Amino acid sequence: MTPADHTGERLLGILLVTGAAAIFGLAGVLTRSVDAEPLVISCWRGLVGALLITAYVFWQRGRAGSPKSMRLGWRGWLMALIGAANSLAFIAAFKYTYVANVAIIFATAPFLAALFAWLLMREGVRSQTMLAAALSLTGVGLMVFSGVGNGNLLGDGLALLMTAGSALYTVLIRAFRDTPAVWAGAVSAFLVFALAWLFTDPLAISVHDALILVGFGVSFAMASVMWTEGARLIPSAEAGLLGSAEVPFAVVFGWIFLTEIPPVASMVGGSLVLLAVFAHAGRDWLQARARTV
To answer: Per-residue DSSP letters for 236-261?
Structure first.
């Protein structure tokens, strides 16, 4: 591969990952733009997204010379159940607290993943990760404390639950290497769809909401594929740093489209979290660059 080809691949990877972060950052705005209850939103977002991701999975299998098994086993079903719970908590959180709060709390997922990896796999935790985790959790504590008494505590709690579940899911992907993780994610969306049909009426929505929910599902699938393909073209540290841009994207979109301005305590706590996340990701990126020079 020529240097020009390598540069072109890297640029494409940067654009794909950054674009995925921006699209993921629209989740709060799209959720709040629909009047339907969280279970219905999760149902249609999951169904449309899962169908598209499933099509992508089978397309990838067709390109491979020796396609991997699609059998989930108990590990895959465990991941699918956790993924379904995460999806429900994620959508519900946007209904009960600020978009910025959900996005910033979710930014702490890498640190919780490091904790779960240590607990479940005995992986070592770097001192810089521990320091960043302590700073980010302090920020989250301020945000959650500010939600006591003003109606945001439930949403912040759901965001924390979703973040912990997502961190656990990330660790299980590494622990269960032979399990088709992308397929498990698609199955989790189908589980949410089935649950919605049992406990609510997903068809009882307006045409306006239906169009937004279809767009929500398409954007979810598109961002997932963009992230998957883009992360393959650039170093992991760089992908992690660019992926962190989802948080400021979500905050800015909430401000532009919803005119939502979080309270001062949330902004202070969020600033601590963002400082921890970007400092940690930036340090990893600089260390990775130094090793390649």
So the answer is: HHHHHHHHTTHHHHHHHHHHHHH---
Report the alpha-carbon distance of residue 32 to residue 257 in Å, rounded: 10
Q: List Cα–Cα distances, 102 to 51, 90, 175, 271, in angstroms.
A: 26, 8, 27, 14
- Cα separation, 5 vs 23, in Å, equals 27
Distance, CA of 82 to CA of 185 (rounded, Å) = 9
| 2/32 Cα distance (integer angstroms) | 47
Average of per-residue pLDDT across 90-114: 87
Is pLDDT above 70 for 293? Answer: no
Q: What token pair was written down for 126?
A: 């770097």
Q: What sign has the CA pseudo-torsion 261, 262, 264, 267?
A: negative
C-alpha torsion 226→68→186→215, nearest 10: 30
